[in-house]
Amino acid sequence: MRRQNLWHNYLIYSIAVLALLFSTAHASGPSNQKSVQGVSIYLGVVPASVVIDHDPEHPERKMHGGTPRDSHYEHVMVALFDEQSGKRITEAEVTAKVSRPGLQPIRKKLEPMAISGAMTFGNYFKMAEDGTYRVEVKISHPGKTGAVKAVFEHEHKYRH
């Protein structure tokens, strides 16, 4: 049963990450995509719990200081593309602030992470309650003057 659960979690996580990674910069604009100042920003939010059952030596278990054991954490990720060329932006400083009315906002650096050879940026954020979370992303990268900022709304349903 544990092996089947491990495989199921890995499959869900892989599909979510691959969907984020292989989105093109010119796809029509779903709510998880914004174009700001020539940068296409794709947001992905997946439960952190899908990587908990990975082998302790698996690289994803070590990302961002280790996978949180608390079931209320989500893995917030962004993929960045130059809108004009469609090329992935791999060198950037990215931060995110996750907030919800009545809760203290959480601001963290989104750390660079290569999955299947493609660079994205991510970190774990606690989302303990159902509802709409505001995810503010700030990006600074070579070749751009000033920071690029985007705001996303994420409808969160806690998975018991």
Report what the structure shows.
It is a single chain. 15% of the residues lie in helices and 42% in strands. The chain has 2 helices and 8 strands; from the N terminus they run αββαββββββ. The protein has helices spanning 2-21, 59-62; strands spanning 33-36, 39-47, 73-82, 93-99, 106-115, 118-126, 131-140, 148-156. It has an 8-stranded antiparallel beta sheet, with helices on one face. A hairpin with a 7-residue loop joins strand 7 and strand 8 (148-156). It is globular, with a radius of gyration of 16 Å. The relative contact order is 0.20. The model is unreliable at 1-16 and 18-30 (pLDDT under 50).
Indicate the radius of gyration in whole angstroms: 16 Å
**How much of the sequence is in beta strands?**
35-45%
Helix content: 10-25%
Outline? globular
Total strand segments: 8
Mean pLDDT: 75
N to C succession of SSEs:
HEEHEEEEEE
| Low-pLDDT runs | 1-16, 18-30
- End-to-end C-alpha gap: 19 Å
Structural class: alpha+beta
**Count of discrete alpha- or pi-helical segments spanning 4 or more residues:** 2
Largest sheet: 8 strands, antiparallel
Secondary-structure blueprint:
Elements: H1 2-21, E1 33-36, E2 39-47, H2 59-62, E3 73-82, E4 93-99, E5 106-115, E6 118-126, E7 131-140, E8 148-156
Antiparallel strand pairs: 1-2, 2-3, 3-6, 4-5, 4-7, 5-6, 7-8
